[in-house]
Amino acid sequence: MNLPLKWEFPGGKIEPNESPEDCLIREIKEELNIAIEIIQRLEPNKHAYPAINIQLIPFICKTIGGEIQLKEHANFKWLNTNELLDLDWAEADIPIINNYLKYLNVIT
Prior knowledge:
Number of domains: 1
Oligomer: single chain
Largest sheet: 2 strands, antiparallel
Distance between the termini: 34 Å
CATH superfamily: Nucleoside Triphosphate Pyrophosphohydrolase
Order of helices and strands: HEEEEH
CATH class: Alpha Beta
Number of helices: 2
Shape: globular
CATH architecture: Alpha-Beta Complex
Strand content: 15-25%
Helix content: 25-40%
Low-confidence stretches: none
Radius of gyration: 14 Å
């Protein structure tokens, strides 16, 4: 997806015979050079951009190894939850953030 100056969560396309979880673990390793552990799957979001329809399948994860090396991204940020809405997010990612914040309110 090419959305200049917009923030997006890392991830990518699921390959044949690959689960969404395996895809995310692979993509994070490829894009950021870190290993993650998936904690919880959240509600997916389907979004129609003018040229493409996408489905995002979000997960809550934690890092378990490696040091971040940006291979496909211009920048990254570790944010507190109260800072998430301060960024200029890609449209498809906004419902993911809102669902994540709702999830946190339920469990805390």
